[in-house]
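To close the chapter, one final illustration. This time we ask the reader to focus less on the individual chains and more on the assembly as a whole: which components sit near each other, and how the overall shape emerges from the parts.
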Amino acid sequence: MRKSTIFLLVTALNLVLLLLLAVHARMGEQAAVASCTVSAGLVKEFQLTDLCLFTEARYTRHPSMADFHAPFQDHPGALDHFPSGSLVSPPCFSREGL
Amino acid sequence: MSAQLARHRNIIDFALSSLLRRKTKNISLLAVYTLIVVAIASAMLFINALKREAAAMLKDAPDMVVQKLVAGRHDLMPVSRGEVIGGITGVRGATPRLWGYYYDAVTRANYTVTVPGGGQPAAGSIYIGSAIARLTGFSHGDLMPLRTYKGESQLLQVVRVLPAEAELVSADLIVVSEKDFRELFSFPSGFATDLAVSVGNPRELATIATKIVSLFPDTRPIIKSEILRTYDAIFDWRGGMIVVMFSVAVLAFIIFAWDKASGLSAEERREIGILKSIGWETSDVLLLKFWEGAIISLTAFLCGAAMAYCHVFFFSASLFEHALKGWAVLYPQFRLAPAINAYQLTILFFLTVVPYTAATIIPSWRSATVDPDSSMR
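The assembled structure is written out below.
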């Protein structure tokens, strides 16, 4: 078999694989909606405000409820002490002056 | 048409033979290239999926949360202020929220203890998040000991383990009754952690927030859009450690690829000279170099994108877990809803395939336009 044929076949196979993954993503959306409904139900039931992603400190557990400068508690833009804090940038508040 | 196709196929044949002559060099280049695409595409898919989940899950979060501040720090909110805020036109209700943190010295984990607005568990009973159940081994019916702020032991019975599919919002939750909450933290009566305000018309949120601040200047209202925006800011892929780490890797790769692609070796220059002397046109040489670059970059992009999808959605982005987990003992186990963002993939394609292919062609064009005799010397 010619080398170009092998290359074109491999590329076509890769494209088909990407398309199949796109179809998988589309199909997975239905299941995800169900799981999201359970989470959204708990958010409503317990009046939750944040995702439980980082539980090591109060300002990483509830970033939206943290003090103004948290997670950069020393001053705005200061580097954080916790590893996950480096993923968190200061939130932007639009209603300045409140 | 078929002649053009045959020409391209012949050149692809030749390009593949040429790449295979320097097998080790090109296979290692392809491997590094694919890994870079996997890393960047994984970060893009993961952050995009998390942003979507955050927006979908937090859509029913309180319309507004009002905190009291003392010396710039969050303080306890007098419940009586809820009645005043509830009287503002447009406000449907202001419910006191009771929540706080409990550090478990045994497991060294931080739990979030909360009291729901309605449907509280009976006194002496608790609901726990599934990550706590997994960590501590407590299940339905077990008695969980907590240490109160007075130093006494408080035994609470687990009556419900929150569903595992909701770990992303409830992994570390302990839901207790108001009586148990106040007992556990010696929480003064007449005070709450903050107030959850519900509003009839979301468009009035900013006006109501301004009214609350003018009534109580020591308060800080946080409206729902700010909560959602906080998550946008957190997951915004411009400012993440993952991306910073990968930027270094990308820079290293750019230097590597530029060096490989732009600096033609003497052998490659000689090859171009021979091809020209046996009758190849400059355009043929450029087409050959285009295909050499395209074969490597296209294969790396397609394989890398598929591998990134599998990494994020089939293996729960296990490579990022340590970065996300940080020092936390409790970490939710979650499967993200699969999603492919065509726009981001297109950007990734143009950022990876196009520069490399261009970097391969330009030096070859320079080399292909010089006299074949001098190229071969």
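The CA atoms of residues 69 and 76 of chain A lie 5 Å apart. Chain A touches chain B through 67 residues (CB under 8 Å). With these observations in hand, you are ready for the problems at the end of the chapter.
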